[in-house]
Automatic annotation (TrEMBL):
GO molecular function, one term: GTP binding
Subunit: Septins polymerize into heterooligomeric protein complexes that form filaments, and associate with cellular membranes, actin filaments and microtubules. GTPase activity is required for filament formation. Can form heterooligomers with other family members and form filaments. Interacts with wdpcp.
Domain Septin-type G span(s) in chain numbering: 27-291
Stated name of the protein: Septin 5
Keyword Cytoplasm: yes
């Protein structure tokens, strides 16, 4: 027997989360990460991003160019469409405003495309190319943020989730690294820059996850190193940098924050998407509708009106075609 109603008082809606989970897994997930860094200090990545995606800048350009790379990955039946947007040439232009314009234009364009698709008739298969997170790489050579860093983050903090990252952490001692982290956080607060805030762990989460969240929060800004070089250490091939005094391992949490950065990205993907949708995209959408002179509350009515107009137009065309076909059938066979 199928066991209908075997348990007294059990309706079955407790199974709803499993239904949502199955539907989400079948549909797959989309995520877009932007990488911005001053290439004068070398490639801001190659970060070994989740699922071992590596992005690197192949050449330095004098103008900012947007290079988006998309890969579809599957892990244990879960599909992820991951897009990494690189910005080679950032910081090289004489006029720093040129850097901002190109990047802001790209982010706004993705919002515009999403708004257009969302307002269209077929909203079933919308591809989300909105930028959900921006890794902003800060030079370790200095005593904190440069004017360009401050300008850039202030220009973008209302459009994207910014995660500050200190590059080339192996050029700093542990004391220098801690001092630079504190200085960067102080200057971020001083200039009123809004960076991505990791949410607190819920009270019902296990202690391990709570501790992980606490460690991740304490690690911001993340100090990382990047390398594509494989080095043999104790019979094992590891990714790192070889120095006369030893090896710096990319995926060793005692050497740098790379694993913490990757963990933050993977464990908070959903939250980054939600903040993008509920905060950054809604701000863009409101401003966009204000510019067109349309109150936000009228948007739903406008969509219904457009749909009705399209349906009426389709009916008129079908009636015209039916009339033409009827006239052709009634036409005498000998008449040209």
């Amino acid at each position: 027997t199928l066991g209908w109603g075997e348990k007294a008082g059990y309706v079955g809606f407790a199974n709803l989360p499993n239904q949502v989970h199955r539907k989400s897994v079948k549909k797959g997930f989309e995520f877009t990460l932007m990488v911005v860094g001053n290439l004068v200090m070398g490639p801001a990545t190659p970060l070994n991003l989740p699922y071992f995606l590596r992005i690197w800048s192949q050449k330095i350009e004098r103008t900012v160019q947007i290079e988006a790379s998309t890969v579809e990955i599957e892990e244990r039946g879960v599909k992820l469409r991951l897009t990494v947007v690189d910005t080679p040439g950032y910081g090289d232009a004489i006029n720093s405003q040129d850097c901002f314009k190109t990047i802001i234009h790209y982010i706004d364009n993705q919002f515009e495309r999403y708004l257009h698709d969302e307002s269209g008739l077929n909203r079933r298969h919308i591809i989300d190319n909105r930028v959900h997170c921006c890794f902003y790489f800060i030079s370790p050579f200095g005593h904190g943020l440069k004017p360009l860093d401050v300008e850039f983050m202030k220009a973008l903090h209302g459009k994207v989730n910014i995660v500050p990252v200190i590059a080339k952490a192996d050029t700093l001692t542990l004391k220098e690294r801690d001092r630079l982290k504190r200085r960067v956080l102080d200057e971020i607060a001083e200039h009123g820059i809004r960076i991505y805030q990791l949410p607190d762990a819920d009270s019902d989460e296990d202690e391990e996850f709570k501790e992980q969240t606490r460690v991740l929060k304490a690690s911001i800004p993340f100090a990382v190193i990047g390398s594509n070089q494989l080095i043999e250490v104790k019979g094992k091939k590891i990714r790192g940098r070889l120095y006369p005094w030893g090896v710096v391992e990319v995926e060793n949490p005692e050497h740098n924050d790379f694993l913490k950065l990757r963990t933050m990205l993977v464990t908070h993907m959903q939250d980054l998407q939600e903040v993008t949708q509920d905060l950054h995209y809604e701000n863009f959408r409101s401003e966009r509708l204000k510019r067109t002179g349309k109150p936000v509350e009228e948007e739903v009515l406008d969509k219904d009106m457009i749909l009705q107009q399209k349906e009426a137009e389709l009916r008129r065309m079908q009636e015209m075609i039916a009339q033409m076909q009827a006239q052709m059938r009634m036409k005498p066979s000998g008449e040209e």
